[in-house]
Amino acid sequence: MVRKLALRMLWVGLIAASGAACGGAAVPQETLTAAQAAAKGAEVGGANEDPKAQLHLKLANEQIEKAKKLIADGENEEAARVVDRAQADADLALALAQQAKALRDAKDADEQLGKLKKKLNQ
Amino acid sequence: MFRVTTSLSMLVLLGACGATLPPQELVDARKAYERASKGMSAQLAPAQLDTAKQALDKAERSFEDEGVDPPTPDLAYIAERKAMIAEAAAGKVAAERDADKADKMFKDAQLDGLDKAKSDLNRERQAGEKTKAELENEKKALSAEKVARAEAERKAAAAMASLAEVAKVKEEARGMVITLSGAVLFATGKYELLPIARDKLDEVAKALIDQGYKGILVEGHTDSKGKASDNETLSLKRAESVRTYLVSRGIPSEKIRATGLGSSRSIADNGTPDGRANNRRVEIIVEPLK
Q1: Under 8 Å between Cβ of B204 and B245
Q2: Nearest CB to B102: which of A85, A88, A113?
Q3: How far apart are the first and last CA of chain B?
């Protein structure tokens, strides 16, 4: 009887130990760092100069903050999903910033061409 | 226990609606992908569009397996962003192409402008050289004309000096009047020119050829002896003889005419022999150019 009880306790102990070691899902530290770098990259890439890009950069940063809180609360699985969302928004912010810059450059080139043509026709 | 409850709830929902409705994120992702695949992304950003497709497929599989539960909404959210990234990438490529095209046109226009400026400059330079050559020619022509005019004036002056030796020359309002005495030109009552008259008229012709004039009028005059009508006829015939001779010496016939005035314009007393001699005359009037 005592032996049976000891065995049960051992199982409970093992299960508890494994739970403490893994904590459910792992902390998404690597993806969080990557998302933070992507948001910074979008900011440097001019995301704040275009309204749509700025919106997605804001979403990315908000989700990064949310993920940090979730990690602090031990909600790693949800944190990982939020980090993935943040990464997608940061990537989109950079793509939109680059598109906006290319459009501005094209407009500038077109204006320069127009001015030159006008000058030549005078 | 929770899972059992959820499953039961889903069964109830399925029973009520017939099928699970996709989460809003998946609806948005599908729309975004459709828009991207129908736009420029297929040509200009195929890699990004493919990534978007894979993300959407993953979200769809999750929806099939997990329904509306996580991670379906998260995967759909990401899939929508991937489709938007494909669109932005295509927009970027298109704008870069437009910019390159405008840059090329700018450079071409600059070169065209440069070529035009060069050719304008050449044309102006050539025109300048031409003008210089033309000016030189004009200068030469003017100089030659000046010499020619001086020579003509010298000749005319010489001819007038010679003329003054054989005839009386005076300036009147009607022009230069050259008066030749009838006695040296014709025999009495005749209208054929005497040989000496020809010499004198040669001098007159020489002087007239070098003069500029509008026309020449040859007037025949007689004294008052005899019938007036006879005198008029004789004066006209004498004037015509002079005209004919001058034409034969180079005076244009259309510019010279003859008239007989008889004794109507005497210049001296017809009562004396000297006076009558002076009245018998031929006057050549050189009408000046206006």
Answers
A1: no
A2: A113
A3: 135
pTM for this model (two decimals): 0.54
Task: Report which residue type is found at B282.
Answer: V
| Domain limits, chain B | 18-154, 167-287
Cβ(B279)–Cβ(B268) under 8 Å? yes
User: Longest C-alpha distance within chain B, in Å?
Assistant: 175
Asked if the Cβ–Cβ distance from B88 to A116 is below 8 Å, we say no
CB-CB neighbours of B231 under 10 Å: 22
What ipTM was predicted for this assembly?
A: 0.80
> Is the CB of A85 less than 8 angstroms away from the CB of B103?
no
Domains located in chain A, CATH noted: 24-121 (1.20.1270)
Walk along chain B (290 residues) in steps of 10 and give the mean pLDDT of each run: 44 52 96 96 96 97 95 97 98 96 91 85 86 87 88 78 80 88 83 86 83 88 90 93 92 92 89 87 88
Neighbours of A72 (CB within 10 A): 10
A105 touching B (Cβ < 8 Å): yes
Positions in chain A short of pLDDT 50: 1-3, 5-7, 9-23
d(CA A20, nearest CA chain B) in Å: 23
Helices and strands counted in chain B (H then E): 9, 5
The CATH topology of domain B167-287 is: 60s Ribosomal Protein L30; Chain: A; (3.30.1330)
